[in-house]
Amino acid sequence: MTHKIPATVITGFLGVGKTTLVQHLLANANGKRLALIINEFGDLGVDGDIVKGCGIEGCEDDDVVELSNGCICCTVAEDFIPAMEKLLNRAEPPDHIVIETSGLALPQPLVRAFNWPEIRNRVTVDGVITVVDSAAVQAGRFAHDEAAIDAQRQGDDMLDHETPLSELFEDQLACADMIILNKTDLLGAGEAEKLEEKLRQKARTGVQFVRAVKGAVSPATLLGLGIGSEGDMAGRHAHHHHHEGDDHHDHDDFETFQAVLGDIPDVDGFIERVRQVVIKHDILRLKGFAAVAGKPMRLVIQAVGPRVEHYFDRPLNAAEQGKTSLVVIGQAGLDKAAITAALAD
């Protein structure tokens, strides 16, 4: 029997810490040959570039495949299957494939794709890992109180359907073999236990829960689950229902654009400006790279709601000198001109 290469699908909402989890995984691979498929929503491949710029020994550019032309669950035939075949046809195939989906990707169609004839005898889903921003969910940012929603439905038929954000979140929980409660350091005493109990009600029976800070979870915990998730689709109920053979879903409720600016004169001042713009315009996610006046290093910026993280990762190349590029993601109706002007102020 031909040995199947295991693949781990890492999913989760925007900014939960998937890329940080992957970086920690790479840094602690201990010689295991890992290949990455990173799916971006938008034109600027930020997450893939962050991984490539991490400086981790053994992480070569050829080991990272970026799919930036659309949601991975909507472009299975056009993008995902060819990317998998490229990795599987290498002279030395990887020991393990790690797939980081965008925050807007439904995991169910992606897992189902592992049954496609082109790859089903060569690769299997070792497990689906859903990463959760514990502090955000605890605050109700990406999840809804079901009892409150039911009460509102009784009084208003217009609330019969859940928001796309809650549907995406619950689909990711429903498909998970392991749920990582990330950023638990931002929770108060006893809140992690309460959050886990709450999410267990939305997850399948027997799903493992792991608590983490800054994505620090050992490869021994993440890899080698041996689930074969593609053979258990009936138990991974999705709120989004698909027609037979049709894995399309609507992304019209989300909007993304790239704001291109010049270099920034002051790091602290710009980070505070980003924070204020995110709050004022209700931006879900902002991420990208900045050139700082008088500094030779590239500044990485990642914002989830009002929380903004930044650090220098590597020297700027010639094309990046004097240029700041930020991807802005939010629900439909973003005022692109106002956001760009406010960032450039």
Walkthrough of the structure:
By secondary structure, the chain is an alpha/beta fold. The protein folds into two domains: 5-231, Rossmann fold (3-Layer(aba) Sandwich); 254-344, Hypothetical Protein Yjia, Chain: A,domain 2, CATH 3.30.1220.10. 29% of the residues lie in helices and 24% in strands. The protein has eleven helices and twelve strands. The chain has a seven-stranded parallel β-sheet, sandwiched between helices. The longest helix is centred in the C-terminal third of the chain and has 14 residues, at 267-280. The N and C termini lie far apart (62 Å). 41% of the residues are buried.
CATH H-level homologous superfamily name of the largest domain: P-loop containing nucleotide triphosphate hydrolases
CATH topology of the largest domain: Rossmann fold
Shape: globular
Give the CATH class of the largest domain. Alpha Beta
How are the strands of the largest sheet arranged? 3-2-4-1-5-6-7
Helix/strand-derived category reads alpha/beta
| Cα radius of gyration in angstroms | 20 Å
- Give the overall average pLDDT: 78
Order of SSEs: EHEHEHEHEHHHEHEHEHEEEEH
Catalogue the unreliable spans.
42-46, 50-59, 143-163, 241-252
Q: Characterize the main sheet.
A: 7 strands, parallel
What's the total number of strands?
12
The number of helical segments is 11
Taken together, the total number of domains comes to: 2
Distance linking N and C termini: 62 Å
> What percent of residues are in strands?
15-25%
